[in-house]
Design goal:
GO terms for molecular function: ceramide glucosyltransferase activity. The chain crosses the membrane at residues 222-255, 261-282. It comes from Haloferax elongans ATCC BAA-1513. It is a multi-pass membrane protein. This protein is an alpha/beta fold and 305 residues long. The protein has 2 domains: 1-109 and 147-182, Spore Coat Polysaccharide Biosynthesis Protein SpsA, Chain A (Alpha-Beta Complex); 115-145 and 185-285, no CATH class. Helix content is 46%, strand content 20%. The chain has 11 helices and 10 strands. It has helices spanning 18-24, 68-79, 98-109, 123-127, 129-142, 160-167, 173-180, 198-215, 217-236, 238-255, 266-282, and strands spanning 7-12, 32-37, 55-59, 84-88, 112-120, 150-154, 184-194, 286-288, 291-297, 300-303. Helix 8 (198-215) packs across helix 9, helix 8 crosses helix 11 and helix 9 (217-236) crosses helix 10 (238-255). It starts with 6 loop residues before the first strand and ends with a strand.
């Protein structure tokens, strides 16, 4: 394989985490890792011992009409030195060949993204793991959706300024990138811990429900219809539904290489998904990354606090 070009990796974070160390260790001469925070008050700006070679801090400032994540991505991409760009997050393990595998996949397919597999850290998020497997893993793969935790592309793959114009007035960074970039999802998952408390999980569920509302309104209707039919069938025919839903989730978990015991929660998760999705759609505000947002329309975002 030819030597990949110098690359900029964007990692929005406010503190130094294991993920920062893991990605920094994979840099080769010429690469840069940009740790994008808000301002001087973030712990990352005063990290003891300094930063490894190739690692820089970018201060994005406070978001005005978009999410903090979207604001960080814009600041990082404007600061990036290179044409090949990687987005990633600080909340999952990056094995030592992670960056090299993305380069190899890009050479074969063009823009690529990996798949998230969300692991619950509280009772509600654990219950919802089968729902996340369908919406967050299978959905990304089947619908060619970008996952912002692991995506590689080049500036020439999209109209960057048009992308910025949309991103700076909305919430979902990967939702907007999906609309501007043709991407190939790889059948390769990364385990992402989510939740921590029931409140955290409800906030996350509200954000996801509203992403579907504004980025895929037809998909929202189809999703609600299918989920309702599954729920009605599960209530009307509990034993067959229990068997079929559990086998389906077992097959899905196996297909993506994630054999966790939570596939056994397929039946109660199916019963919970419709009321929780409606709850997320009904919420007027939600919290993400310590900020509260009011998302009135796709390009109408208020940072409440």
């Amino acid at each position: 394989m030819s030597t990949p070009p110098a690359t900029t990796i964007l990692l929005p974070t406010i503190r130094w985490t294991d993920a920062c160390e893991e990605v920094a260790d994979q840099l080769v001469p010429g690469d840069e890792l940009l740790l994008v925070c808000d301002d001087e008050s973030d712990p990352i700006t005063s990290r003891e011992g300094g930063l490894p070679d190739g690692v820089r801090i970018v201060k994005a400032g406070e978001p005005a009409r978009c999410s903090g994540k979207a604001n960080a991505i814009i600041a990082g991409m404007r600061e990036a030195k290179h044409d090949r760009i990687v987005w990633t997050d600080d909340d999952f393990h990056h094995p030592s060949d992670w960056l090299a595998e993305l380069h190899a996949a890009y050479e074969e397919h063009g823009p690529v993204t990996e798949l998230p597999f969300f692991i619950g850290r509280d009772p509600l998020s654990m219950l919802l793991e089968p729902v996340y497997a369908v919406g967050g893993t299978l959905g990304v793969y089947a619908d060619d959706i970008v996952w912002g935790g692991a995506v590689m592309f080049e500036r020439s793959d999209l109209d960057v300024e048009a992308f910025f114009a949309d991103l700076q007035r909305t919430v979902s960074d990967d939702g907007i990138l999906t609309e501007h970039l043709d991407v190939t999802p790889l059948r390769r998952t990364r385990r992402v811990p989510v939740g921590g408390s029931i409140r955290d999980t409800l906030e996350r569920h509200a954000r996801f429900a509203q992403i579907v509302r504004y980025h895929d309104p037809k998909g929202k209707v189809v999703m609600l219809l299918l989920a309702t039919l599954v729920s009605v069938g599960a209530v009307a025919f509990p034993l067959p539904a229990l068997v079929l839903l559990t086998l389906f989730q077992l097959g899905l978990y196996a297909a993506v290489g994630e054999l966790r015991w939570t596939f056994l929660l397929a039946y109660p998760a199916a019963l919970a998904q419709v009321p929780l999705f409606l709850y997320g759609l009904a919420r007027r505000t939600f919290v993400w990354g310590g900020r509260r947002y009011r998302w009135r329309d796709k390009f109408d975002v208020e940072v409440v606090s």
